[in-house]
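Q: What changes when glutamic acid is included in the input?
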Amino acid sequence: MTTPVRTRFAPSPTGFLHLGGARTALFSWAYARHHGGTFVLRVEDTDLERSTPEAVQAILDGMRWLQLDADEGPFYQMQRMDRYREVLAGMLAAGTAYYCYSSPEEVEAMREAARAQGLKPRYDGTWRPEPGKTLPPVPEGRKPVIRFRNPQEGETSWNDMVKGPIRFANTELDDLIIARPDGTPTYNFCVVVDDLDMNITHVIRGDDHVNNTPRQINILKALGGTVPEYGHLPMILGPDGEKLSKRHGAVSVMEYDRDGYLPEAMINYLARLGWSHGDDELFTREQFVEWFDPSHLSRSAAQWDPKKLNWVNAHYIKQTPDAELAKLVAPRIAARGGKADADNLEAVIALLKDRAETLEQLADGAMLFCGPHEPAPAELAQEHLGDDNRALLRDFAALLADTPWQREALNAQVKAFIKERGLKMPQLAIPLRVAVVGRTQTPSIDAVLELLGRDTVLGRLAQL
Ligand code: GLU
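A: The predicted holo structure follows.
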């Protein structure tokens, strides 16, 4: 029987859930779901200076919005301190870790000496116990760090799920500090204990952690653990090829919520950032889970493409039923001072949804129908509502008074009227738009008239 798959997402709560983090979470989640496994959420909050409760909340909010539900957790590293201490004590007893009394200045001098010999700067092993070696006397009053006794022979290697085989000579790896002088465990150590205790089988994370992996593997082996599979995802670059950052616009997932992107679009778009399934660009969450296979993860960096995200979002907007979209857009209309509970909101959405790339654009468009009337600016009125056009519109208004108020009939009336007067469509439609909604461009004029309603349209034309 194969071991059940267990993956984890292990964010450090030092800011919002950013796009790279969300993609890592998505791939870890999808891998677990694909294999019917378990997805664990672990909050790596041991950096007390940079971790904040707001950031924890922002990460939880982002995951909830994307519906990346964890099966276990959130676990918090700060709540596991006793366990880390227990493992440290066990390692000291087993001789896989040791106290090191070298001061930071001494360690710096060792590194300097190595550099001077053209070697990699490193701790020189002064306090590393060896058979037959006498350790120096313990300096009085100095609190020791605890170092991991890293193997000095051989190499540490793994077959990365994304990058293929990776190897490090063990001589390259220092005896890592795993506890500080005050006894608190360090980052790489906590990760190992957690991955071990949580029985993680597949670690999917950003490739900024590649250098940590051999150290973590060695500690894990020293603890008698089974080494998980590792997959390191290349980073996401901005459209200009630089590392994605605030400079490129929104990097927090929740900003995309605010800006009117649908979570399903975000999932679809993020899934394609560094992963592919043939030429498929649009797929459901379920399809993604079914297809997700790390052998199709790309080894090269992915590039953030806001235009493509908009295209994907537009697709999901079109796919979403009008009633559901209306619910999503209503608060955005209210925020603009519009009437969010208008009876015809669904019909308004139906008219606009094919052209909207975001819910914000949809709300902007809907304000034509749900917002207060904005009369034409003087310039537009001057250009389009001169005496002749006002007379024309009055005649047209008289015709409308007897027209059944639905799109086809209104359209027929518009056509009949321009034919009779020998006009081209814009010669009626533009002044009509300016008179009724104060602008020259709107969706199809018959649809606009229908949705505004007879009273509104005739009322506004009567004021000419
Ligand atoms: N906490 C780390 C980060 O936010 C991730 C560690 C890991 O996945 O092993 O980058």
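Observations recorded in class: The pocket of glutamic acid is lined by residues 10-12, 44, 191, 205, 209 (CB under 6 Å).
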